[in-house]
Amino acid sequence: MSHTPMIQQYLKIKADYQDCFLFFRLGDFYEMFFEDAKKAALELEITLTSRDGGGDGRIPMCGVPFHSAENYIKALIDKGYKVAICEQVEDPKVAKGVVKREVVQLITPGTVMEGNMLDDKENNYLAVVTEIADQQFAFAYTDMSTGETFVMEIKRGWNAVLSELYNRPIKEVVVEQDFATTLIDELKEKMQLTVSYAIETHSNQAITELVKDISDDQLKQTCMVLYQYLFHTQKRAIDHLKQAQVIELAEYMTLDMYSQRNLEITSSLLRKEKFGSLLWVIDRTVTAMGARKLKKWLERPLLTQSLIEKRLDLVNGFYDQFFEREEIREALQSIYDMERLSGRVSFGNVNARDLIQLKRSLAKVPFIKEQLKQFDSKAVQAFSDSMDPLPELFELLDNSIAEDPPISITEGNLLKDGYHQELDQYRDASRNGKHWIAELEQKEKAETNIKSLKIGFNRVFGYYIEVTRPNLPMIPEGRYQRKQTLTNAERFITEELKEKESLILEAEEKSVELEYQLFLELREKVKMYIPYLQRLAETISEIDVLQSFATVSEENNYVRPNFTKDHHIYLEESRHPVIEKVMKDEQFVPNTIELADDKHLLLITGPNMSGKSTYMRQLALTIIMAQVGCFVPAQRAELSITDQIFTRIGAADDLVSGQSTFMVEMLEANHAVQHATEDSLILLDEIGRGTSTYDGMALAQAIIEYIHDHIKAKTLFSTHYHELTSLEDNLSALKNIHVRAEEIEGKVVFLHQIHEGAADESYGIHVAQLAGLPNPLIKRANVILSQLEGTSSNKPLSSKNREEDNFEIEQIAFFAPEEPAKKGKKSADHEIIENLQKIKLLEMTPMDAMNELYQLQKKAQGAKGRK
Ligand code: ADP
Ligand code: MG
């Protein structure tokens, strides 16, 4: 049996949109069928039904109401799906056979325009990757909601592409049909991105125009793929797209994926949220545009000193004048998101309320311009000159849009009186008519003497005169015609009333229709201003970021960094910008950080929790802050430009890719060693921990030596291998520093103070003692240590003769079983302890450790139960 014509139509359209949910318009619903329906029912938690579609058996079906579709679409997009909107494109009343339907828009995670699907403070990017040579790629990304596009060449291989993808909110990647499937899998699984295939279409005039200034053919081609995909999905003109901007990666600091993540620049490592990140501390922007711009700056710190100084000068200007700055901040509050508004204007989904907001924003611009002139800084003043408040656009909006318009643009009341003559006439007609009706009511009341008589209106019957039942006898014979009977009243009409009614309704209908037309015309006029609005938005967002830097710098006592040409770094009383903000009761302890050409490697020793990692990170964060143009948390800051930052921090397994900590460690170390220059900063935090002691120490030493001899990058290296501190004797550019734990009133206290030299060798034992471990244990540890120091190899002391070494295992509080193990019969407790002793922690992944712990706990619980 063949399917009904409608289902045939559905299948035909669906064939072109295999990888999307096809929202098939049927009356007031979008329906989905077959597999789409089953999947959507699950994902959206809606009821799966079925219908007879003519084929064998019933067809699975589910649907969402047209008017609330947006929420369902959002839910699917958020999960990374794509949705094809298929509308009826002819009037069902005149259609012969099945109504014609077409896909009018493809909504995908990277091409979202609708306000409620976007995060105000985040861009939403669609990217394209093409392979241009072995391990070389062209990469472009665009934010359709703001119209900006960036394109670049990536010569450092696939991982650099992944870093670009990771470092910004990219939601979807377009690749060409022949792109390597292994890489596509990585995009999907590791990066959790929606992957789409390039669309082969003919290029159009608009696309040619957008790429005309790109000289490199491969970059041009990549941008064309991007734009073709946009036009294919949107199926309409997109006037707000700006020319693609070519990015030379060599002009920006390289912050790979690992560093971006490890340094918690825009989101925290554990919770993946803004709180606890550098962005969280320095974001005091007022506008959504400013918030997005700040993120963009943080994603690409600068390398060119003059550009950095330019930003710093501006920050300085805003910093120096608190009151003027506060005025600016206040004024920025009423600036609407002009950047995204421009997008919606071009897209045709802007309403009268948006335009009112735009008008109010424009109204603030002259004040901001004036206020900027109040600053002493010439640089800040220059902003004032570059701002065009667009008075003609303001006037246009001020004369046209009503002050408090409705959201809907099809129901009238959008425009002011006096804006358009014909509209005024219709409105007069309708107002006069209504006035006449109000007078009629008074007249009828008086003449019939019925006080409760009233004239009402409803959509079905139009205007009517209503008289309550007890008063009916008072109506003179033949005065009204009966129209409708209610329980308590009768409704009447008169010839005259009906005449007036049709005048009023006609005038209203015409005026609503005319208003809609006028509004569309107005929207077209506003469209002409898009490039100007975009430029204004650009300036305002920059001002916003700069005032934000000035505001945090003042509030947190940051200083302006100085850049020197030699490789020197000197941070006096440096602080960690985030930790100092999240600390509650305690004070952050500032420490000085110094690195020089001839001392560019710092080896940091000290017990756990003393502050080694913090010290290392604060240097990296300070450098990043300085190179985006913000002041930094220190008393004095002398810096040289850092071209790249590499990090190996933190012990979290890369769970997504399933690699163990040690593998990740080595990947990150390799990455640093391969790419770092003498202008780079490398942070290696306790490297070598994930493997056995000898391996780890050997690797750690070899890495330090390699950096020292070949790379000469500034390097901070924290380690628990105390032996490494002796490297200072042979590596001239290496310096030992350490953090100590102190004993105060019998408690271990970390003062978090960095000192020169290596940590005391026995600090570990010292801390153990402070922690209250039994004396015989401490004594034994000291014996082992001194013997280790005596031997040239670092072999652990044989455990055989420990009895003679004056050590009694029963005294260790940790392991002491309540009943000592009975000879011959192993108790369960003893078995657990044995297992514990056998565990090779250093060779385990955290997951293995969890499993082992789980097994042991089960055993322990069993043992307890048996007792
Ligand atoms: P380590 O790497 O030596 O184990 P961390 O750098 O992780 O130690 O620091 C541990 C904790 O100590 C931090 O979370 C922070 O709360 C505190 N801390 C570190 N450095 C300082 C400091 N300079 N001043 C105050 N508290 C600090
Ligand atoms: Mg640490």
Automatic annotation (TrEMBL):
Record Pfam families: MutS_I, MutS_II, MutS_III, MutS_IV, MutS_V
GO molecular function annotation: ATP binding; ATP-dependent DNA damage sensor activity; damaged DNA binding; mismatched DNA binding
Signal peptide: none
SMART domains, per the entry: MUTSac, MUTSd
The protein's role, per its UniProt record: This protein is involved in the repair of mismatches in DNA. It is possible that it carries out the mismatch recognition step. This protein has a weak ATPase activity.
Positions of the DNA mismatch repair proteins mutS family domain: 680-696
GO BP field: mismatch repair
UniProt similarity note: Belongs to the DNA mismatch repair MutS family.
Alphabetical UniProt keywords: ATP-binding, Coiled coil, DNA damage, DNA repair, DNA-binding, Nucleotide-binding
Protein's UniProt name: DNA mismatch repair protein MutS
Lineage of producing organism: Bacteria, Bacillati, Bacillota, Bacilli, Bacillales
PANTHER family: DNA MISMATCH REPAIR PROTEIN MSH1, MITOCHONDRIAL, DNA MISMATCH REPAIR PROTEIN MUTS FAMILY MEMBER
Species, as recorded: Gracilibacillus salitolerans
